[in-house]
Amino acid sequence: MTDVATGATRAETKEQRSWYWYDWANSAYVTTTATVLMSPYLTSIAEAAACPDLAEGADCTTTLSVLGIPVAPGSLWFYTVTFTTVLSALVLVFVGAVADRSPRPTRLFAAFAWAGALAASLMFFVEGTNWQLGALLVVIAGMALGSSLVVYDSILCRIADENERDRVSSKGWAFGFLGGGLLLALNFALVTLHESVGLTLSMATRISLLSAGLWWAGFTVIPYLGLRHLTGTVATPVERSRGVVGGSLAQLGDTLRELRLYPQTLLFLLAYLFFNDGIQTVIGSSSVYGQEELGFPQGTVLGIFLLVQFVAFFGARLFGRLAARVGAWRTVLGGVWLWTLVVVVAFFTPSRSLALFVVLAVLIGIVLGGTQALSRSLYSQLIPRGREAEFFSLYQAMERGTSWLGTLVFGLVYQFTSSYRWAIVVLVVFFVVGGVLLSRVRMREGIVAAGNPVPRVV
């Protein structure tokens, strides 16, 4: 942290150190539950409900009925995620407006976090054929997580000025990978050694789901206690007399109108929505792809994801060094094309080819950390100065509320082809469209238009 007047480096504040811990807390749910365990587990629960007499290794061709709509058990997870993210698109912008106006944002943030952690913990009770409870809890946990992160991001603007946010945000992001990786390692050991400790695979999975919820709830106490003294509100462009609902709608309209004045910012955001949609779908589908299509046991898939978790930490560092040499825009663009390669390699990976699966994991880890970290930095350069909280609130809402098309397409392709290979290769379209749009972003023009200084290397 640098003092503008003296150029001296100042120590991190207590608030910033407290803030880091929420990345550590929620990443346990993101990695253990949302990314690795719940997708194949809910699929197995759905298959047990639809095909109770299914022979081991056979495909379930019977559909479930969801509000009268036939749904293949293998598509249930992806439709559930799609529903959650579409619903988020309608809710998160209001959450951001409430956070802007809240005199006690930490209480609001903690309330969402603990609601999500409760839903995550209750996943322990999903067993047998009770897929309805599993799907409902996934929706609640996902909504609560997205809402808590909107408030979490707005708090960043209160504890760090514009010169500190990149460093503070990046450190929290890296801290999250370590926390999520640590719990995933513990759950990997439990699932792998479940027989030696007298547990069934199902019970070991359920305990792991419970541990993610308890971890999320427990470590949220640290940022809550460290930030609970924060008071006051961030200045908003809409007068408070409009109220929460009216003010939220007015603020959203103002933000969208502002975006039209910054065409390069809007173009970058559109590009990000496409390639991020592809990234999130690959992450969310990887565990079920590894188990159902490539035939690896759950323990192997857990180990692979553990590898991804820690490689991603170093991948972010590598991408940071590359960005310093060739610019963040070129580095992210290269990362998008690497994601395209990952999807193509995944399509051609033979069943039970562990060596290729490990190569895929390393590639995913490298590009996962780098593209996500640098995308946030690039976007921050294209935001008009003094409007960071407002624009990042929209960024968070759009990131989590519109990343639904990939999971929908994945689920539809699987339902019509009964093949996860064809479902995953379709995601090439998202990376190609995102990459083409990103290649058309004129960063220097966008940075100058936003009123920000142009970095030495763009």
UniProtKB/TrEMBL annotation:
Keywords annotated in UniProt: Membrane, Transmembrane, Transmembrane helix, Transport
Subcellular location: Cell membrane
Residue stretches spanning the membrane: 76-96, 108-126, 132-152, 173-194, 206-227, 266-289, 301-320, 327-348, 354-374, 394-414, 420-438
Domain Major facilitator superfamily (MFS) profile: 264-458
Keyword Nucleotide-binding among UniProt keywords: no
Membrane topology: Multi-pass membrane protein
InterPro entries: Atg22-like, ATG22/LtaA_families, MFS_dom, MFS_trans_sf
Alphabetized GO MF terms: transmembrane transporter activity
UniProt GO cellular component terms: plasma membrane
Family annotation (Pfam families): ATG22
Protein name: UMF1 family MFS transporter
Organism encoding this protein: Terracoccus luteus
